[in-house]
Amino acid sequence: MDPILIKLAKLLPRLEDVEELLDNEVEARYILKKAISFMENCESSKCVDEEEIRYLICALVDRNWERIHTGHFSSVPLNIRKIYAIGCYFKIFFLLLESTDPGQREICSGILDEAQLLGCMEDWSELKISLMQYLDDEKVGASVPLPILMPSTRLQSTCDIPQMEAPSLNEFKTQCFTPRQPTLLLNTIKHWPAMEKWLDLNYLLQIAGNRTVPIEIGSNYASDEWSQQLVKIRDFLQRQFGSEEGSQEIEYLAQHELFSQIPALKKDISIPDYCTISGDDPPGAVDIKAWLGPAGTISPMHYDPKHNLLCQVFGSKKIILAAPEDTDKLYPHDSEFLGNTSQIDAASLDFEKYPLVKEVKFYDLLLQPGDCLYMPPKWWHYVRSEAPSFSVSFWWE
Amino acid sequence: MRRLLFTGFNAFGQHEFVTGDTDSAAGFREINAPLSEQNQCTISVGWRYSALALGRKLYMRGLLEFEPHECVTLEAVDNIKALAAGEAYCLVLLHSGQLYRVSIKIKTELQAVRLEAPPRPNSATKRSIFGTTKAQPGSPIVEHIACGSHMNVAVSSENAVYSIPSCLHQFPGRQFRVKQLECGHEHAVLLSRNGDVYTWGNGLRGQLGQSVLKTEETPHLLEALAGIKITRIAAGGWHSAAISAFGDLYTWGLNCSGQLGIRVMKPGGLLKEPTVYPLPQLHDLPECSCSKNQESSSDDCAPLRVFAGSRHTLLIRRCGGLWVSGWSKYGQLGKRSDRQVEFLDAFQALERIRLSQETDQIICGPWATLLCVES
């Protein structure tokens, strides 16, 4: 066995680490016990039943995939997601025992990403990072280099909400947070390394190209043509930002926790201090999400339950807001999934179909690089990218 | 002589095969079970174990508690009518209408299930002259059972629907009869004798056949099929299927592994996934090979019965042909002569298998298919 693999295998969970997880998990207990003892004895070349255990591990992964996809994701017990992640680690090792050629590594890297998306890997981050490094050994280069975007100069535009130039924490608290006043915070993230680094799309390709992420296809998630797909960031970047001008469908890397998936990218941003202001004491966790796409991506009029700081790294976004008080006049969808989404097209209002909309007060603004938009909970917002755009949002209670 | 033929996931010795002759058609293998003409045989296939009943005897095999190939034999007080192999326990319904459950472990027993009484139709409770309420009639007589990973359902002879043990719903009217009850992981489908389909449970993946994705606590008439007389239904993990008296097949729900048998292509040739079909989709099935050989109308090969596992679907056509679609990674769909793929996204015939539409049965486990055939 490859010495590097042997070293990596030492990072795999031991039986005593997982015992607690397996209390009422008959099949996971039986299968993981076998797999753990197999890997422990692997070095001493006493490997027996490799084929059978590999088959059982695959079945464990598939079985827990089904359990994760049953019911609401938020109500899936954490131990199921942990067992899924552990199963994926072992599955990767069995695949690498077969072969370590680039094709196989790519398959493994895809499994690792899926474990990241569905499973819970918190307890094994050292293994995750080492494995990721091992699998990404070869550098990703684009066959044709991706463009380096030009830093854009500030455009004059109307803004229907208050604007503040990088307010202090106290100003933010008294003038925005406490009165729940949506505000455009100008030049607040100018110091982020991301502001310069990410303009070079080849840098993003280098760091993140091999990762698989969920991509939304179609310009608007509430439309019937919309779908979601797991793709490699490098394919997404090539298709949406490469030199080839095509009749490509619009793809949007939206609402994804990219920074916990790729810790190296997190170094380029920092959580704004504003997020420490909270009704809760101590403040709760901050959800950080990435929003990357070409010009023309649309998030239809919708609201989120938490405080939201939307920070613009490059490109600009046209945003239309409406207050929570107008919810009844915004025609939310009936379904459980789209209950927070309006049926109206905020960019071209149809008063005939939605007459109550006439009474709604809308607020227009343009979000530009270096700026953040503060949105209090339940404020409605419509967002459209005017150019290739990368935003980072911070949600907190 | 009846034979049980199996294909699918069997890593825990859920099924013991007949030794020697293993060359059954299309990858199916014969199960070693003491079948006889006298005893009715009932089977339910769980993920890690199988349950088989012969007369009053119940046999459970598989990974019950510690190791594969574990085996438990129990005896009920009466002949067993139906089984439903759930995750934590197996439901056992006796011919008398009494319901029991068995925990899945080595030392186990049949425990009577006490169902809550359904609410009386009129709220005025009859009282005796002494002011106490009249004693409720005894435990309901159960006629149908089904279970999934998040659901355990029973229907009584008086048309009360239970999410065991509580009563969810009471179908009104003496004429109403339940013909078939099936459960997916988290949804239930019920077919009445007059051909109406009712669904309830979690519908966030389109399982319920309604245009709006949501959870329904109680049975709702499937509007999209109202007015069409349905004769058979099936519930897979997150999908459902129905066949009408006209011989039309409908499927709806999640199509992540081709289980709906609907091939979806995007303009670029890319497969669109994962896809949810909330409304029943009418199928235009490929022509059967037998219709080419002889003079026959397409009616002779119309779909007759449909069955579903977690992510696969099987179809018996009037001619006896077995057609399959969906996930096949663990051999759920048997072996075909063409190269082995992880899933089929459109219905294909399993050559070399002919079923008798009258007597042959199909039982699907989550990742398995079992044929009960007369040979």
TrEMBL record, chain A:
Annotated GO biological process: circadian behavior
Keyword ATP-binding: no
Keyword hit for Oxidoreductase: yes
GO molecular function, one term: metal ion binding
Source species of the chain: Drosophila ananassae (Fruit fly)
Names of the cofactor(s): Fe(2+)
Keyword field: Iron, Metal-binding, Nucleus, Oxidoreductase
GO cellular component, one term: nucleus
UniProt cross-references to Gene3D superfamilies, sorted A to Z: Cupin
Classification via InterPro entries: Cupin_8 (IPR041667), JmjC_dom (IPR003347)
SUPFAM superfamilies named among the record's database cross-references: Clavaminate synthase-like (SSF51197)
Coiled coil: none
Segments forming domain JmjC: 251-397
Protein name in UniProt: JmjC domain-containing protein
Locations listed in the record: Nucleus
TrEMBL record, chain B:
Source organism of the structure: Drosophila ananassae
Any Pfam family matching the protein: RCC1
Protein name: RCC1 domain-containing protein 1
Gene3D superfamilies: Regulator of chromosome condensation 1/beta-lactamase-inhibitor protein II
RCC repeats: from-to residues: 195-246, 247-319
Domain of life: Eukaryota
Signal sequence extent: none
